[in-house]
Records
---
Amino acid sequence: MGLREKKLGLIGAGNMGSAILEGLLSKRLMTPASISVFDKMTEKADELARRLGVDPASSNAELVQKCDLILLAIKPQDLATVSAELRSVLSTRHTVLSILAGMTLAKLAEFLGRQAVLVRAMPNLGARVGASLTALDGTQAEAIALAEEVFSGCGKTLRLEEKHFDDFTALAGSGPAYFFLLMESIEKKALEKGFNADAARLTALQTALGAALTALSGTESPADLRKMVTSKGGTTEAALETLEKNKVRDVFSAAYDAAADRGRALRGG
């Protein structure tokens, strides 16, 4: 059974869950009539339902009873509470797609029971503009293929062994924030140098966009492109020497490890 024959229920109407639904609908992979949504903050679910034309459910249990494909988009810390509502209504007809950071398939089965088919997914904020990269792994190949259809609505997908998920979360799930921090620092410096607010913002964002599109458009590696921009004795070389002197690579490496460690901590392992 393909995605168009499924009823999808979103549990958690936050930024990521909303972005995934918007992608599904904008690419016409599903219709509003085939989607239900529930959030413990009912006003969020109601607002999303009004905006997208989907069905607001009155509870997690009602949503699961209506749907056969469940997108779990809550905070990992809320899993114990939500799973207590779901265990008794999940069955073998259900596929659960979880985007919870740190929560392994085994941990999900511990909370949700082993009736439903489980898929673990890790998208990123690029889903808002159809440019996410979502890693996928699951207990059944057919369910992973179904998840690929769902997440193709918000970008590209990547099948990845679950043992790599904590590192993928640190690198790609959290990754947009690292680039936003760099944009923020460029914007701040431009403001300090007297740029007006619009010029400072454009300088940061267009520079980042140009770098990303350049990297995507050719076959050169990021290292090769960095070397292309770096003329001997030039301004870029001066900047990069300062970054290297301050061990920027070590700082980022430590940041990635901290994010991965936090993912493991979220599941208590």
Note: The chain has two domains: 3-163, 175-266.
---
Amino acid sequence: MCIALATALALLVPGPVALAADAPTGQGTAVPDASDRKQIELALAQGKFKAGDRRGAMVSLYQGKWYMPKREKVRRCIAKRESGANYRAVSAGGRYRGAYQMSRRLAVGASWMMQREVRRELGAEAKKLVIALRKKPTQQWNRYWQDRAFWTIWHKGKGKSHWRGGGKNCMKRR
């Protein structure tokens, strides 16, 4: 996990960050270590903190291996263009769902792509959460899982074709 994750996730926790390790810095605040970041990410995977908020654009809750900080504005633009950044959105015909308007096939495929990595990073409990996603419509996935699926599909730009014009309109402005 990148350092940006610790910073971003610390902002998502209500009140001062005082986690298990409780390692204070010179300013009297706790800096999450790898174990704490894992606990926070697992909590997000379970729908806690900001993961339950499924409206509006904010920083990606997933900031792991596939996250690209330099493409964060593109991700937000795609979410706004596709669904108005509404993680509960369903297209008029019902075929595309969630903030990124993924088809069922794409969403289920993303869950398979995420499964091994989630098991390795977050453990067996989180792997069960990924498996359970396959039984849920994408718009019912919490913000963390939809963001993680986006970055997994985006795959450092190789999967950008899954969004109209590969996010071209969003990329032009960035």
Note: Residues 13-26 have pLDDT under 50 and may be disordered.
---
Amino acid sequence: MALTKEQIAQRIARELKNGYYVNLGIGIPTLVANYIPAGINVELQSENGLLGMGPFPFEGEEDADLINAGKQTVTTLPGSVFFDSAVSFGMIRAGRIDFTVLGAMEVSEKGDIANWKIPGKMVKGMGGAMDLVASAKNIIVAMQHTDPRGNSKLLSTCTLPLTGVGCVKKVVTDLGVFDIIEEGFCCIEYAQGVTIDEIKTKTAGRLTISADVKEMAI
């Protein structure tokens, strides 16, 4: 059984380490804020100018003036600070962000990512993704394994305009967890109810299966 978006976020949250400064992209990545493990203290940064972001608010407790970069209402934690976007991007470009989680439309076996534009469709802009992929130390992608037509989004080469080249370290999809190594995608975990044969069928890029591959624990 494929993972839900919440389960993808929950699995990624287990990658967080104490003291990390973390940026969560729009979409599935924002859900990671709700699943930070107990005892792990991280600082969530939003490129619109917030450090110390908390989980999403409960229904009825939203503050319309308190939003993340995706214009979703959020909460703040004690000690959080607000600043302008110039300072925020200064943090990113200076390499102060330890861990970045992004959504993607495509990821290649070499760690390239395409997540900002589909030719012919209107977009508001690239946002902070290009700065993040150029400067962050550790980039994980959260995405569906296939598009709505069933085509693989884990490819040999991205077909859409690139956001960054050779920058993605790990991909977590609804089917499993994949390290990006010299040989391409390496499956290290598979979702409960998902078979290795299904993963092979739905992965267009080069794929190897780790000798220690295991069922994902959520």
Note: The two ends are 13 Å apart (CA to CA).
---
Amino acid sequence: MALDKNQIAQRIAKELQDGYYVNLGIGIPTLVANYIPEGVEVVLQSENGLLGMGPFPVAGKEDADLINAGKQTITTVPGSAFFDSAMSFGMIRSGKVDLTVLGAMEVAQNGDIANWKIPGKMVKGMGGAMDLVASAKNIIVAMNHTDRKGNSKLLEKCSLPITGLQCVKKIVSNLGVFNITKDGFECIEHAPGVTIEEIKSATAGKLTIANNVREMSF
């Protein structure tokens, strides 16, 4: 069975390492804050000016003054710091962010990402994604494997406007986990109940299957 968005976030949280500074993009990536493994200390950075973001607040405990870049209410942790956007993007552009987790509309087999615009639809702009893909040391994409019409979003080449070139290192989709290699997408894990044949039929880009491919665990 394909994963839901919380399971995608939970699997990505396993990629976090102690001491990491992490930026979580809008959408599924924000949910990663709820699944940080026990014993792992990371500092979550929000590009609107916060270092030390906590999990989402419980119902009734929201503070409208505390929001992330997607305008969702959040919590802070002891030692959190607030600052302006100039300092926030200074952190990003100077390479201080160890890991960025982004959503995507499309990812190409060489690591190109398109995640900000669909031609003909109104958008507010690229936002901080341009800086993040240019400066982060590691980028993981959280996404559904296909669009609502069943078309693959893991492609040979992106058809939508590009956000960043050859920057994605790993994808966690609702069907599995994929590394970006010189030979395209490499499936290293499959979601529980999802077959390799299902993954192959849902992937338009070049796909290889790791010799030690395994079922995803949480």
Note: Residues 5-215 form a domain with the Glutaconate Coenzyme A-transferase fold (CATH 3.40.1080.10).
